[in-house]
Amino acid sequence: MICVGQIGAPHGVHGAVRLFSFTQDPTAVTAYGPVQTEDGQEFEITALRPGKIYFIARLSGVHDRDAAARLTNQRLYVPRERLPPTEDADTFYHADLIGLAAETADGAPLGKVTAIYNHGAGDLIEITRDGKVTLVPFTHRTVPNVDLAGGRIIVEPLIESD
Q1: Which of 41, 57, 74, 156 is the Cys-Cys partner for 19 at CB 3.0 to 4.6 Å?
Q2: What are 49's strand-pairing partners?
């Protein structure tokens, strides 16, 4: 399951919610069919309009403020197979990278990709080996090859200068 959004606080008294979209095109959150919460509730996003830094959304079966309030902070998921193919060879879904083996160009194991982070300055790949975590910038320089079919990424070591 892929997280495509998160419900915020209720909006108004008729069951609308604030919705934060995590999709590349924020309005595409409605394009993948029904969404599901972590606890298995399923909803259709029946209406979506822009708010300030979020959308105002209507969800099927949510008709009052109390029902909307119970959904606050719920993350919304869709199955991976509903997402469209990536547009080019250098674009990846984070979920496709997690679990890949990380290796050097000569095949030395570095660990496994356990998470992807983005704090505003670009993606970081978390590589874990024997409980030790290493963060690597996800750039062409440090990760020159992503081999999804082979289940691995190639990581070039960062060289520190004096």
Answers
A1: 57
A2: 56
Which pTM does this prediction carry?
A: 0.71
What phi, psi does 94 have (nearest 5°)? -55, -40
Q: How many CB atoms lie within 10 A of CB 46?
A: 12
Helices then strands, each counted (H, E), the chain = 2, 13
Neighbours of 18 (CB within 10 A): 19
Tokens read off for 100 = 């890949």
105: exposed, middle or buried (Cβ count in 10 Å: 0-12, 13-18, 19+): exposed
Cα(37)–Cα(71) distance, rounded to whole angstroms? 9
Burial status of residue 20 (CB atoms within 10 A of its CB: 0-12, 13-18, 19 or more): middle
Pair 135, 122: CB distance under 8 Å: no
Query: How do residues 43-101 score in pLDDT, each as one tens digit?
Result: 999 999 998 889 999 999 999 999 999 999 999 999 988 888 887 877 888 888 999 99
**Least confident span in 7-16, 26-35, 79-88, 98-107:** 79-88
Give 75's strand partners: 6
Q: 128 pLDDT exceeds 80? A: yes
Residue 26 DSSP SS3: helix
